[in-house]
Amino acid sequence: MADSIGQKIKVFLENPLYKKGSLFPFLFPILLTLSLIIHLISLNRRNKSYKKITDIKSVPDYNFDNLKLICIGNILIGGTGKSPVVQKIAKTYLDKGFIVAIAARGIGKNIKSIYCNNTDPVKNLDFLSDENREHFELLNKHSENKGIFYILQNKKRIESLQFLLNEIKNKNYHNLKAILILDDGLQHFSCPRDVNICLWSPELLLESPYYAMPMGPYREGFGKNSFQRLLNCFDFRLWSRTKENDKEEYKSKIKLSLKRFNLEPNKKDIIAVYRTNYFNIKFIENKIKLENFKLESELNHFFTSSNSVTIITGIANPKNLISDLSSLINKKNVITLFLNDHGELNHSAIQLIKNSTIMIMTLKDIFRWASHPIFIDLIKEKNIIGCSVDVHFETLDNIKTEVF
Predict the structure, then answer these.
(1) Is the distance from CB of 255 to CB of 266 less than 8 angstroms?
(2) Which residue range is the domain that position 383 belongs to?
(3) Are 366 and 396 spatial neighbours (Cβ–Cβ below 8 Å)?
(4) Are 390 and 277 in contact (CB under 8 A)?
(5) d(CA 190, CA 89)
(6) Which of 271, 291, 255, 138 is nearest to 197 (CA)?
(7) What residue ranges are annotated as transmembrane (predicted)?
(8) pTM here?
């Protein structure tokens, strides 16, 4: 099927200037001016830099040696694999015995303040955004109640920080170490942080124009010198994402992209190596249950009842998803429907679900649509595979690391 409007816009932004279409020369002056304005606004904010926690007067008293603040984000417009990175770091610190909190803004209709944790009776899960709901479910499955974690959804991440510190005080968690992960917070300067991790794509640095939107696929930046400064200004350059068997080619692209900006690879450069996880999706009393496929044969057997499979998704890079699924859906009749990023169910999607037996969706899609009564009724008797991405981190020397 044809790309959604959101996909077409994304392709337009990522394309080199000479591939932007016949109308582009006429729009060039307007787009260039808007791109420069966005750059100047972001440059002014970035020059003011981020605050330290000692600069914040409104946070409760706390032994800040026990608190780590990590910000994970990008200057790209979606599709960099940020969510799996957030989840991996959260799981790592859960395993170390930390209280883990993820602070995120929410999306669309779910931009509202919702605080959830796994130790109290869980409420308001349906009001979490798709990304935050996925964070909650995967951390809950990973921890098996052996750790404490929070999902803090608020437009103002500083308020999420205040909430976490009050929770630590009120529940007498003072002796426990805690980490607050600021999800997609690089453009939000009011909340302090100790570490800034920026996700980059070597392919886009090699192929796309060095301009902020609407000329290029970036939230800030204008010209080669600007991007050289941006590549240097974060604590880690996280290159996301590549598969295990594509690492060497990917590393070559990273080195080439850095060379274009007269930069040498160093300890800042970390690769996110990923694989796709698959879950058998069950709905029990209208609640989502994730069941692992213990063996690859179980996953393959799942498909034997039909020669066709339907893929419906509303994510930023659906073509990456199709590539990930290529071996699984080999020799099947594949029907696809790509909605806009974070897209809601439309009439076409509902009709396609009605007429499909086996479907593949990302966990984000499933959690976003799970509050839709029609969706629940339609899929109760269907075979649904949910997929998510898991990552591990390596240096350019192929050394696994948890440096964050």
Answers:
(1) no
(2) 275-392
(3) no
(4) yes
(5) 22
(6) 271
(7) 23-43
(8) 0.93
Mean pLDDT of the chain: 89
- Let me know if residue 176 belongs to a domain: no
* In the predicted structure, residue 181 carries a pLDDT above the cut 90: yes
Q: Which amino acid is at 277?
A: N
- 3-state percent helix, strand, coil for the chain, nearest multiple of 5: 40, 25, 35
139 vs 150: CA distance, rounded Å = 10
Would you say residue 228 lies in a domain?
Answer: no
Instruction: List the Cα angle 347/350/352 in 5-degree steps.
Output: 110
Nearest Cα neighbor of 42 from 212, 192, 174, 197 is 212
Q: Is residue 28, in this structure, part of any structural domain at all?
A: no
350 lies in some domain? yes
In this predicted model, what pLDDT tens digit does every residue of 250-275 receive, in sequence order?
999 999 999 999 999 999 999 999 99
Q: Residue 267: how many CA atoms within 13 Å on its side-chain side?
A: 5
| Identity of the residue numbered 295 | L
Domain count, the chain: 1
Scored b (16 or more CB within 10 A) or e, 157-196 reads bbbbbbbbbebbeeeebeeebbbbbbbbbbebeebbbbbb
Helix/strand/coil (H/E/C) assignment for every residue in 206-223:
HHCCCEECCCCCECCCEC
Exposed, middle or buried by CB within 10 Å (0-12, 13-18, 19+), for 55?
exposed
